[in-house]
Amino acid sequence: MKKLLLFAVMLSPVACFAQKPDMAVGKATYQYIHIRDTTNRDKPYKETMALLLGRNASVYRSVTKQQQEEEMANQVASQVKSAPDPNHLALTITGPGPVSTDEYYQYINNKKLYIEEQVINYYLTEEPLPAIKWTIQPDTMSFGTLHAQKATAHFKGRDYIAWFCTDLPFHNGPWKLNGLPGLIVEASDVKKEVVFKFMGFEDVSKLNQTILPPADDIKTTPQDLARLKEARVKDPAGFSKAAHGGGQQRRSSNAFMSSIDPNKIASINIVKSTSDNNRINNNPIELPEKK
What we know:
By secondary structure, this protein is an alpha+beta fold. It has helices at 2-10, 63-82, 222-234, 236-245, and strands at 22-23, 26-34, 45-53, 57-62, 89-94, 103-107, 112-119, 121-128, 135-143, 146-155, 158-165, 183-189, 194-203, 210-211, 218-220, 265-271.
């Protein structure tokens, strides 16, 4: 336990961040479809994702996760408002379904990829932006009014087909995909086990949204984060206690509960999520390369 606590404390926040904030000018929305459970291919994992785009940076994150958090906040607010006895609250909350908690920040000019992951606390790792060897094909396809061209590449153990649009002058794409002369509007591996299906694009330049990882993320290395995850698997209870005991908790997905005096909560009933997604993942998005 002491080793866990020491390791958690060693991963401390880093005040400086090498990249400058970028203002978002566009947003692409995708339906992410992933056959995570190969024993149940008829029920793939599905989630709505958004790619917020600036001139140099982008961030790819879950819309479904945000919607779930907003729904839980609305449920609590409504019940608190209508409670017959505000000093003895009996809350009923719909539990969240499985969602992607990772966020991917691409910095094209600086060739950097930052990944925010939640392991109780929020951690930020830095790695080189993947240099994907695309082969541009002559095939074209239309996505509504957008005209796209085909490209193929082998990446992270899978063979991908991507469609990029030069009318949208961004070199980014969903997840870790990047490096084409236009926004990647749709992509999938050839087996259709991983699909990023295009749902739309909108101008968000007037919304004053900034693309920059949260300043209170705990910056660490991919290697140290992997060891942290291993420690969590070996001792979940001890890991949770060490992470909280180290005083590192920065943000929480249930922040909407923080405004309620816990002494006034008599009970909390968690209702099972209606999400069709399950937590089985025997087919990760990144596969080992065949030797």
